[in-house]
Amino acid sequence: MTSDSDTTLGTDGSQPGSNGTQQNTQVASVSQPALSRNSVLGAYKVTTDGGNCQIILSLTKWSGGYRAASRGCPGKVADVSAWDVSGSQVVLKDSGGSNVANLNSAGNSRYEGSTNGGQSITLYR
């Protein structure tokens, strides 16, 4: 009788494990793995609502995290002077350590997000 009750546990009438395992796999693929600083550092082209520019992320310790240098960036993105990784996000900061933008990995050394002012921003190589 235990085996009969086990086969009716799935919400769609499927056997336990077949649907539950698939759902768990889908959830795992949606969550992004934590980034490492070494995988993020380097030079990037930047596209933002105000135009295009460059940002270089280094591993030199700096106020707010690690040293970043922007070149030709418009708006608040011009204020970026530090960066760090927080879980699965790249966080760009100004010289006071305040967040300027949060970006998520979009794959292939591409990071997409928005500034605190709501501008879209993309870093890519």
Automatic annotation (TrEMBL):
UniProt source species: Jiella pelagia
Region annotated Disordered, chain positions: 1-34, 96-125
Ranges of biased composition (kind: Polar residues): 15-34
Keywords: Protease inhibitor, Signal
Domain Alkaline proteinase inhibitor/ Outer membrane lipoprotein Omp19: 36-125
Pfam families per record: Inh
Biased composition (Low complexity): 1-14
Gene3D superfamilies named among the record's database cross-references: 2.40.128.10
Source superkingdom: Bacteria
Gene Ontology molecular functions: peptidase inhibitor activity
Entry protein name: Protease inhibitor Inh/omp19 family protein
